[in-house]
């Protein structure tokens, strides 16, 4: 099985968006550099960020996200983001009316079932879990192997928390750190109980 990674860009004070789901300047680092991150021509980052992020993105097989994110993005028009093969949506509701059943999306009730399906689909590739409520649920359930944060030098003050409403302590190993332009990439392995 591949590694299960909790991931997002985050403010210094731990938010992935404001109360209205606006990430504000959290993604500015993705367009402020001079090295293309993908073929779109839009995403351009520093060389350090490119080397770190591209190597990670190339290993992602499946993304797990909540229904709220799915709805906000209009299901990415049926095309998984960033070249990912499949998206597993954690939801109590079925696919939207008129949804293309051939689109590489699964709608699964419960975080444990969603991560299990994602691991099956991903094989030895990474399963990425979106930060927020779903990510916090996955960490609380002991399903996360690694936490990755792209920490942006901004204080949002309030909003949607990186770990959602998680209210228990979880220990992480020491961080691996990569300094990009206007972003600090942090990678932590989750410490398992002995």
UniProtKB/TrEMBL annotation:
Superkingdom of the organism of origin: Bacteria
Segments crossing the lipid bilayer: none
Residue intervals of the Bacterial bifunctional deaminase-reductase C-terminal domain: 4-184
Name under which the protein is recorded: Deaminase
Species of provenance: Naasia aerilata
């Amino acid at each position: 099985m591949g590694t299960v990674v909790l991931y997002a860009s985050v403010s210094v004070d731990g938010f992935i968006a404001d109360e209205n789901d606006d990430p504000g300047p959290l993604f500015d680092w993705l367009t402020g550099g001079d090295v293309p991150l993908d073929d779109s021509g839009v995403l351009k980052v520093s060389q350090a960020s490119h080397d770190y992020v591209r190597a990670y993105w190339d290993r992602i097989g499946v993304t797990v996200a909540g229904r709220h994110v799915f709805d906000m993005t209009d299901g990415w028009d049926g095309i998984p983001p960033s070249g990912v093969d499949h998206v597993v949506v954690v939801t109590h509701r079925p696919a939207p009316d008129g949804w293309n059943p051939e689109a590489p999306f699964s709608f699964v009730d419960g975080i444990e079932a969603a991560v299990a399906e994602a691991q099956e689909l991903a094989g030895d590739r990474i399963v990425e879990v979106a930060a927020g409520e779903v990510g916090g649920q996955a960490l609380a359930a002991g399903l996360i192997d690694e936490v990755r944060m792209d920490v942006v030098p901004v204080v949002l003050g309030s909003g949607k928390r990186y770990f959602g409403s998680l209210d228990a302590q979880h220990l992480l190993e020491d961080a691996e750190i990569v300094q990009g332009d206007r972003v600090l990439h942090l990678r932590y392995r989750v410490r398992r109980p002995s």
